[in-house]
Amino acid sequence: MIVDLHKYLLIGSRSEMDRFFALAQKAGFMEFIGLSHKKALEMPNDAKTIISAIKIVRAYAAPSDDPYVSTLDPVRLSEKIINLNDEHEKLLEEQRIISAEISRVSAFGNFSRNELDRFEVEGKRVVQFFCMKSDQASEITFPPEVIYVGTEYDLSYFVSINKEPAQYPKMIEIIIDRPVGVLKERLTQVKMEIAKHEKEVFDSAKALRYLQEGLLDYLNDYHLQLAKHDAGSPLGDSLFAIEAWVPKTRIKAMFGLLSGLDVHAEEIAIDPKDKIPTYQENKGVAKLGEDLVHVYDTPAASDKDPSLWVLVFFSLFFAMIVSDAGYGLIYLSIGLFLKWKYKKASGFFRRFIKLILIVSTSCIVWGCFTASFFGIEIGPNNPYRKVSLLHYMASKKAEYHMKQKDDVYEEYVKQYPQVATAKDGHEFLVKAAKKVDGKMRYPALSGFYDNILLEFSLFIGMIHISFSFIRYMTRNWTGIGWIFFMIGGYLYFPSFLDATSFLNFMGVISKPISTIVGEQMLYTGLGLVLVISLLMKKKWGALHELTNAIQVFADVLSYIRLYALALAGMIMASTFNELGLEAGFVGGFFIIIIGHITNLTLTIMSGVIHGLRLNFLEWYHYSFEGGGRLFDPLRIRKVK
User: Fold this and answer.
1) Which of 17, 190, 460, 487 pairs with 129 at a CA distance of 20 to 30 A?
2) How far apart are CA 358 and CA 291, in angstroms?
3) Residue 124 confidence (pLDDT) above 90
4) How far, in Å, CA of 254 to CA of 558, rounded?
5) Where would I find the H helices in 536-584?
6) Which among 422, 419, 320, 408 has a CA at the least distance from the CA of 364?
7) Buried b vs exposed e over 484-510: b needs ≥16 C-beta within 10 Å?
8) Is 170 left (phi over 0), alpha (psi -120 to 50) or beta?
9) pTM over 0.85
C-alpha cells in the first residue's frame, strides 16, 4: 500500500533542536527537507575508511554468523585491512613482473650475477645477452664472439663476449639484473607472502558484520548532524526551522513526539515542483511483491501500489513457464531446506525463501493441472493424467467435436477410423493414436492440449491487461473501451481461424453467439475509445488514441511466450529422458541428471525474466507511472 505523505513545517526553540532530532531519528518516520543554504556536510573520513574495508572483505568468503571479537575498533581494523590489501596487490603485481622476467631470461639458465661481474672486471671483457627471431637467425652467419644459447618459441638467444659493448643487426639486447635462479627464489617468497596476506584478509571477512555495525554508528551520527545542519534559522540563534515529509499514518505519532518539546508543527501546501517521495507500507506476502516491484522501478507517489498484483501474477506466470510438477517439487525442497538451514534468517533473505515456497507451490499446482512430471510420458489412461483439469478440458473439446460432427471430427475419423466408435471424449483421445518408432503417439491428445494451453495464455493475457485498465480507470476512462475491445477480439477472432474456443466447448457461449457478440464488442470498444477521448477534449488526440489498438493487440499476443516457453521446457525434459533411456543405465543416468539440471536452470531463468517482464512491460504500460524516489526518513539504521 502506498501511503500519502504530508508536508510539515517544524519550528522550535534552538535549545530543543538536539533533543528533537535525536527523538525524530529514534522514531524514524520523518524525511527532512533542508532549509539551510549552508555547504553540505561531507561524510566523515573514518566512515569512508570503513566503507573501503567492507568492499575488500566482501570479495572473500561469506562472513561467519559467529560474533567477531576484535581488540581494534572498526576504524583501526579497517585501516589494517586496507593496508593488507594494498600489500597484497603490490605482491600480486610483483609476482606478475617476476613471472614475465623469468619467461624473458630463462633461456640463459641459472648463473651467478656476482661471478659474472667479477669475470668482466678481471677479464676486462663485456658479456652481453641478445635475442632475435628464429627465422632471421637461420639466415645470418654470426661472428665468433657471438655464442648461440638456444631457441624458445620463435626466438633464438645468444651471448657475446667482447672487449667493448657491441650491437648486432636485427638483435635485441637483453639486460639481466637477476638470473633465473634468483628470480625463481624470489617468486617462491612472493607466493608465500601472498598466501599469508590472503589468509589474513580471508580471516578478516569474519569481521564484516562488525565493520557494518561500526559504519552504521558513524552514518547514524552523520545523518543526525546532516539533519541539524539543514535546519534554517529564521530568527537568528533563537529558533530553528525545517520542513519534513510525514506519512499520513504517522501524523498522530508526530504530534505525540512533539508533545513534550517546545517545537510546533504546521502542515503546509505541497509545491507542484516538489518531488514527493514514495512511502510503501506492506506486510506479509505483499512485502514480497514490493521486493519484486523494486527490481524494475520505484512507483511514483501518485501510483497505486502494484506489489500484491505483481506477486500473484509473477507466481502464475512462473508456474505456467515451468509447467512441471516434478520441477516444482525440487524448488519446494530447496525452499524448505533453506528455511530449515537458516531458521534465524530475517529481512530480504527470509522473504526470498518465502517467495521460493510460493512459486514452487504454484509450479506443483500448475504441473498437476497439465499432468506434467519431469517430462515423463504419462499414458492417457494413467490416473494422474485423467484427474488433471487439462485432460478434462481436452475430453470436453473432443466431445464437442463428436457432437458437432464438424471438420475436426471428420479429419480425425479419416485418419483414425476407430475414432468413429468412441463413446466419450476420453475414448476419442485414446483411439486417435498411432505407433511411431515402436511408441504409441496420441496426436489428438497432444494437439488439443497445445490448443488449450495456447488459448489459455492469451486468455490470461487479456485478463491481466484488463485488470491494469481497471486499476487506473478513473485516470483514463478509455480503458473501458479497450477492455470491450480485447474481450470482443477474443470472442470474434476464432471465427477467422475456424477455431473452437474453450468457452465454446465448455458450454459458456456458443460459436455463433460468440462471433456476433464479439464483433459487436470489438467495434463498440473502439467507439467508446473515440467518444470518451472526444469528451475528454482530446480533439485530434482522439484519433491518436485509436492507434493504441495495435499496442493493445500486440501486448495480448505477447503472452503467447508463456505457452512457447512451457512447450520448449517440456520438449527438452522429454528429449533428455528419451536420450537417457537409449544410452543404458549408467550413461543414461548421467544424461538424465545433467539434462534435467540444465533444463531446471533454463526454466528458472525463463520464469524469472519473462514472469517479471510481462508485469513490468505489458501490464505496467497501462497502470504504472514509476520514476519514484523511495521515502528515506532520518532513522537509526541497523545491520539486517
Assistant:
1) 190
2) 14
3) no
4) 48
5) 541-546, 548-557, 560-582
6) 320
7) bbbbbbbbbbbbeeeebbbbbbeeeee
8) left
9) no
